[in-house]
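Entry 0007
Protein: DUF4301 domain-containing protein
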Amino acid sequence: MIQLTENDEKQLREKGISKEKVIDQVNTFKEGIPFVQLKNAAVIGNGILKFTEAEEKELIKLYDSKLEDLDILKFVPASGAASRMFKALFNFLEVYNPEEETLEAYFERTNDKDLKVFSEGLERLPFYKKVIERLQNHNGSTGKKVHRFVSELMGENALNYGFYPKGLLPFHDYKDVAATPFEEHLKEGALYASSNGKAKLHFTVSEQHEEMFKDEFTHAGPRVSKDTGLEYEIVYSFQKSSTDTLAVDVDNKPFRNDDGTVLFRPGGHGALIENLNDQDADIIFIKNIDNVAVMKDAKAVADSKKVLAGILLKVQQKAFDYAGQLDRGDLSDANISKIKAFLNEHLNVRFTKNFDSKSRSEKTGILKDKINRPIRIGGMVKNEGEPGGGPFWVSNAKGEVSLQIIESAQIDMSNNAQADIMKNSTHFNPVDLVCGVRNYKGEKYDLIKFVDDKQGFITDKTKDGKELKALELPGLWNGAMAFWNTIFVEVPLVTFNPVKSVVDLLKDSHQA
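Output (structure tokens):
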């Protein structure tokens, strides 16, 4: 049994974390988190839909026709810091001395491909003009010029971009303005996530960066409103302190800081299911802050989003109709079979083999449970070798099969059969979600009830030279949505433009 002091319990109360939750987390560390059991990769024709151009036009038309009657929200996880994006530049400043070595010698010595691409593409970077304007000295060798440029970009007493949230960095240079991802999301939202002259966007940000985002909106907001003719309603939220997770030592006892307090760590993006649960709208679009297209590609991106929203509206209408019938009761066997077939064929719900042998009331109960769930439509792009999660059919401990977005860390790669399924996957998860979070009566679901707590991650870390184990909550689009009804759809590659490293800004898709 876990021993908590009075001070520990006070700390829990201040964070809004229950003692039961801490006990559960300790038990999770002790038991470990099992690998998921993949049954198959989701592919076109088995878990992933692909539409013809004519079908897409129909879905877009359906969405556009309902637009003015819909309450729409765009939800953007935006708390990511830029530090990881600039890893190569931090490393360069640490190990390169332009007085002692040429840049060519540095490349030969380190094989630093990212820095080489960066140095060769300087003039195509969206912040090039801004940095050059600030530099007094333009003389010297190539090595000195690049070193000076990076120092001005990253220095604490200079632009200090390594401290910035990723969402507020210049991403796209339109000559008259270098647009940040924040601004691009406003412009993009106008194309598919607005109705009745208004666009509502919700950004999850780090508390320390909230004022920076608000300041960016005072500059970019009026400019975008003028261009789009829209009024913008922008809301910010932070990861809740109550979603922090306990860290333990190697003996699975709470890890203690030097002052004796228990160490809690942020729970990862899965914590944002709490923030999402606080939202209520007919349709919620979810897209990461760093995945933005230049405006020349914006229409293709918007059309793709409308296709996903059209599918949601179409399938939801039928699901709501059947949910109402189930509540009213007294269904014939034929109706029960029809609802089961709808769930199976259109919402990818799989039933256990003994379903058909159950009584009519038992079948009705199962169908009610399966149909009264939030729905997510997930866009999937063809796998081009990007690291990250993908769509799979998964079997849980009870033998229930469902469609899930699974990360490679959740798969036992030492198991050849599981590794083969992973290798045979054809599609990748770009975090392109359209969500329906209300039931047929218009009431919002409690999204916390649809989380699979057994899909978190345990990682090894160190603090003050001591080893510890950390717990990451089930990811927002992974285990946090495990018990949603799920539809996956192939979307075009133009919709996927993430910036994980600074050199990604040199790709054609980010050249305005």
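Curator remark: The radius of gyration is 25 Å. The longest strand covers residues 375-382.
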